[in-house]
Fold this sequence. Notes:
Elements: H1 3-15, H2 21-29, H3 33-48, E1 51-55, E2 57-60, H4 89-97, E3 106-109, H5 121-132, E4 137-140, H6 143-153, H7 157-167, E5 169-171, H8 182-188, H9 195-207, E6 212-218, H10 224-241, E7 244-251, H11 277-290, E8 296-300, H12 301-304, H13 306-312, E9 319-321, H14 344-353, E10 357-361, E11 367-370, H15 377-380
Residues 66, 68-70, 73, 75-76, 112-113, 144, 190-191 line the site of iron/sulfur cluster.
Amino acid sequence: MAADRRRELEEKVYAGERLSREDGIALYESDDLAWLGRLAHHVRTTKNGDRVMFNVNRHLNLTNVCSASCAYCSFQRKPGEKDAYTMRVEEAVRKAREMEGEQLTELHIVNGLHPTLPWRYYPRVLRELKAALPGVSLKAFTATEIHWFEKISGRSADEILDELIDAGLESLTGGGAEIFDWEVRQHIVDHATHWEDWSRIHRLAHQKGLRTPATMLYGHIEQPKHRVDHVLRLRELQDETGGFVVFIPLRYQHDFVDAADGKIRNRLQARTTMATPAESLKTFAVSRLLLDNVPHLKCFWVMHGLSVAQLSLNFGVDDLDGSVVEYKITHDADHYGTPSTMHREDLLELIWDAGFRPVERNTRYEVVREYDPPVPLAQRRAQPQQVWA
Ligand code: SF4
């Protein structure tokens, strides 16, 4: 990158000016990872100090039976497949109850688009879960699932959200976003929910007072310009609603082997590799720089590994997801030594060790508890740590 262009970008970032589409593409073209990290760390520190938020949650997948066959998906099964499953309401409640002793604050519920489960099953599950675990927030369903519920119930998203909120829903999940640009989306997504419906449903949720996450699946067949486009669509919607609380870049998983049968189900595999750690850190940094109106940036460590998760805290990330005790959607198996479970104490160590201050939050990003660092880290980390000289 030419020196004057680099200076121009630095000046914009330090002045708090909004970056353009061209700026985003130029940042992706830079091979100076430390420079990108320094810029993103400035924004991250300005917004969130030396805090790293996390919550104690559990992922619950009510069914892996799905009408769609998205090219990247290793989770979905067709009816009758050997390991296809659908939980009865009582089973879902029993599984959730197993976590009660963990001071769980959130259940994160996403599912396949089941072809025959009736609409009434979904509010009933939420109601029963809420009755069993009244102190636990229910973050449930992607916009794709809400769109599916419109189809199977004949009701509008407006009515569906009202009923789910009445049953205990506190937030949608951020999934189903993948990459919004049709040039890419048509090759990876097999359901009917694209930007128009995804944004319609999140807008509606925001109007009803829910704050929601937004995700982006990167590192497959998309190019940096598609990531920039994705983030700018979200930025524009956020200008309108202010309802997105966190952005989560999700690293496409190239080579999940199904533990049940040893198969690789991902149909993109012949055309893809997988984002390298450097590419992931760059994606975090550029996302943080472009998305100036969303308060938090999350690293979902299950998809990145713990090393990248720690490093990401210096590339704009201020939120680490879990404790996750069971996670199925992409984590049937991996080759990266990433544990599929982690607990509060593990996360505290991870965050302190990286030089930051852990803060436990709830689904609404309200502080549940701040954790003082153990001595002698207290002196060293009393101030936001400026790791980039
Ligand atoms: S990503 Fe979701 S909608 Fe697509 S096949 Fe997998 S479970 Fe179904």
